[in-house]
Design brief:
71% helix; 2 domains; mainly alpha; 461 residues
């Protein structure tokens, strides 16, 4: 018992080191799986579009025939598969580059609070926010392990962070120019980031109307102009025609969106990670109470839940309105990135408001906080999926099966190709496998990119 007591005291004394170590190891585990990803779905489709015709034609076709994402379409078409035929290592490098860039940008954006936190504390906070995003995001495989998803949504998050970093700089022509460029990139990446930015510019303009500043009006005007390029692109009209009869049903869209908002709000608090770490951070970082003085007004406790509802609503409602279904969850990933810091801040404010009660609670559990932290993480589905993939070597089996498929495709291009279904489907790694129907988009993507003379068939099991 003496040694156990001594060990527990050692943990309490070095809680921040243990916390940092666990967070670092988990981030490394998630990064590690990136070395085993493979292209799938739209990766092949867009690579073929760019390879079969001049880039400018493929780019204009996307804008005029499919969607108005004038910025992310550039990266989607110019994906790594077009530079060097089926170079998996280059594909992985680009994905890892965006992942690392996202981490660095989060840290960079926290430099706005350098007067409250030391560099070490900002690194710890960055690592926690980054890890929370990985643990809680609704579509981990499409959000973190798929090139097309990364350049459409995660790149937009990087621009999003940079935009708000420079937005609060001193007024200057250079700052205004940088913000307009970032607006163009952010709005042209995806529709969700477009709506977020226009709403922010409008609300900020309204609340600052007494303090007239011409740059706020310019930024709102330019954000609307860039949004028109997306909304009124001919491609959006063509894509909308595929959903006639099920789209534009207001009450159905509203009801389903509200249900989904509650669903994802529960997901946002999965494992009580954000609350528990807020409690620990509040007691481990001395300056955090000073930082919270900027948000002391009691009304903020009511404003943040409303803001979370609005952020989730904005990311979900357009999908139901335009298609009648929720579809993929990549758009909600973006919402979660915005919601996580606000949810974390809300818990910190709650702990600060009832400081005495939560200090007593922390004193009772301080010997076990590291253990409770690990347990809370283990309740998240993304953690369970990541551990399961690594423990059962699913990433290695998946990698081997794909490499065998590539070898077969390289040697059988002159006729119809019959491929086996991939037996291993890791939870973390994105894969759109082939379909029984040879005319399915996944099959056509394989057939065209690999230049198979016939069709690509999936062998029935």
């Amino acid at each position: 018992m003496f040694y156990l007591s001594k060990f527990l005291k050692f943990i309490v004394k070095n809680n921040s080191i243990f916390f940092g170590g666990i967070i670092f190891l988990l981030c490394i585990a998630f990064f590690y799986l990136t070395f085993y990803i493979h292209p799938s779905g739209d990766d092949y489709t867009y690579a073929f579009l760019e390879l079969k015709s001049p880039f400018i034609k493929a780019y204009l076709d996307e804008y005029f025939l499919w969607n108005g994402r004038y910025f992310s379409n550039f990266f989607v078409l110019k994906n790594p598969l077009t530079f060097w035929f089926n170079n998996i290592y280059l594909y992985r490098f680009f994905v890892i580059f965006i992942q690392v860039s996202l981490f660095i940008t989060i840290y960079f954006s926290l430099s706005n609070f350098s007067s409250f936190f030391t560099k070490q504390q900002r690194v710890l906070l960055t690592s926690f926010l980054f890890l929370s995003y990985l643990l809680l995001m609704p579509a981990l495989n499409e959000g973190f392990y798929w090139y097309t998803g990364m350049v459409t949504y995660q790149l937009a998050i990087i621009f999003f962070l940079l935009y708000f970093h420079f937005f609060f700089y001193k007024q200057s022509y250079l700052r205004l120019f940088v913000l307009i460029i970032l607006q163009a990139m952010l709005i042209g990446s995806n529709e969700v980031s477009m709506i977020y930015l226009v709403c922010f510019q409008f609300v900020y303009l309204i609340f600052s109307i007494k303090n007239f500043r011409i740059d706020y009006y310019i930024l709102f005007f330019t954000s609307v102009c860039f949004s028109f390029l997306v909304l009124f692109s001919p491609g959006n009209s063509i894509r909308a025609s595929y959903f006639e009869g099920v789209s534009h049903q207001f009450f159905h869209s509203l009801m389903m969106t509200i249900l989904q908002v509650f669903r994802f709000f529960l997901k946002l608090n999965e494992g009580f990670i954000l609350f528990f770490v807020a409690l620990v951070f509040y007691n481990l970082i001395p300056n955090i109470s000073v930082f919270l003085e900027n948000f002391k007004e009691i009304r903020i406790l009511f404003i943040i839940p409303i803001l979370l509802f609005m952020v989730l609503f904005i990311s979900i409602f357009p999908a139901y309105w335009t298609t009648g279904i929720m579809g993929q969850h990549r758009t909600v990933n973006f919402a979660f990135f915005v919601c996580i810091p606000f949810m974390f801040l809300w818990f910190l404010l709650l702990i600060n408001l009832f400081e005495l009660f939560f200090q007593r609670l922390y004193q009772k559990i301080k010997f076990f906080v590291v253990f409770i932290f690990v347990v809370s993480i283990s309740f998240t589905r993304n953690f369970q999926g990541m551990i399961e993939d690594i423990y059962h070597l699913k990433h290695l089996k998946f990698n081997n099966e794909n490499n065998q498929r590539y070898d077969f495709l390289n040697n059988h291009k002159k006729k119809d190709v019959f491929l086996k279904r991939l037996k291993t489907h890791p939870f973390t790694i994105s894969i759109y496998d082939l379909d029984i129907d040879p005319n399915h988009l996944a099959n056509i993507g394989y057939q065209r990119y690999w230049k198979v003379k016939g069709k690509v068939f999936l062998i029935p099991e």
